[in-house]
Fold:
Amino acid sequence: MASPILPLLPSNLEVIQDPNQVAKLSKDYYHFSPVLTAQLQDKVADVVIRPATEAEVLQVAKACVASKTPLTVRGAGTGNYGQCIPLEGGIILDLSKLNRTKWVKPGLACVEAGAKLAAIDKITREQGWEIRMAPSTYRTATIGGFIGGGSGGIGSITYGQLADRGNLTAVRVVTMEDEPQILELRGDDVQKVNHAYGTNGIITELEIPLGPAYPWAEVIVTFDDFMQAARFGYTLGEADGIIKKLISIHAWPVPSYFAALQEFLPPNQTAALLMIAESSLEPFGELVKAYGGTVTYQKTAEAAKKGAALAEFTWNHTTLHARNVDTNLTYLQTLFPYDTDLKLVEHMYRHFGDEVLMHLEFFRVHGQVCPAALQLVRYTTEARLNEIIRYHETQGAFIANPHTYILEDGGRKEINDTQVAFKGQVDPYGLLNPGKMRGWLERNT
Structure:
């Protein structure tokens, strides 16, 4: 059935109606979760629209409001929680054509929402700067999708999370009012749309802060003992004089899933996958010696441009590689409390054994180095998965549940009244990515 929006659109817009293409562009990596797979596998949009300018986005927004057609914004579809999967059909707004880097200044860039992170860096590095943090899907993810659905990543050991003040400077947002308009949010106001799954505004342009572009060496260090590796990772995170971008610790058998790296990953060894500034390699080497690690792999920044990037085996790419071997594996997202002794990490590692395989990513939380875990879970039933989650929570770990598509239930676990109020202002009919914001669904209850 033809979408009621089509007669309202100008003829110059790119419209995709081929069912196979529409189905493909209606999905992300939700299948990492067996829970989400059952809930979302039949969800699909009616049509995909691919605007090339902000003016065309305004035209689509106006037509959606006039026809009361739901609209779900898509970047590159690299999310894992169904953020860009339409629950009520309607329009997928694919922003991949809004991909310009408009300007670069020292420490700051202005980019369109559909610009790929790697493409932005290619431009900014010519001036000695780079994006502060990125997901493991860095080569394909868009900046708008990362802000709308991400929270941190490679670089977070230095710069914290996207939600931290200073990690997003400004955004331009198209509204879904009767007469859609463009709003510019700056300063703390950017939090109104930061990590909101596109439920309360269509981000078209962003000003993002940059960090110095160091030549990053890639290093693998192996250890006989997981906890020794974990303590090494924590100490490296706290070593302020050593410039680093990635500290990723993988208990065996997780390294066995990394096919392209097998010659560097001895059996039964824990592996640390790291990105270290070349200028810091000498003091870094001393730290490796102090913890009894063995360097099995080291590439200069220039050599690292070729072949598989270590970062693509970390964060959620770890889950991707593991599931390529065993589709019964799923994952958790766990934030352990600040603890220099890593007692809770050790408890969970020993308590669950081979059922929950430990994978740590170190990052900064309010200035303190903390381990986040993206553990691999040998899935049996949803009930058992929920038991594992509850056990973590009762022991004091925070679970950002990757098995729900509801914004609040997956992350903060509380309603963000500011974001809900902003949705009421800019999307009064609730057409933007409907069904994803619990605060909006429950506002009148």
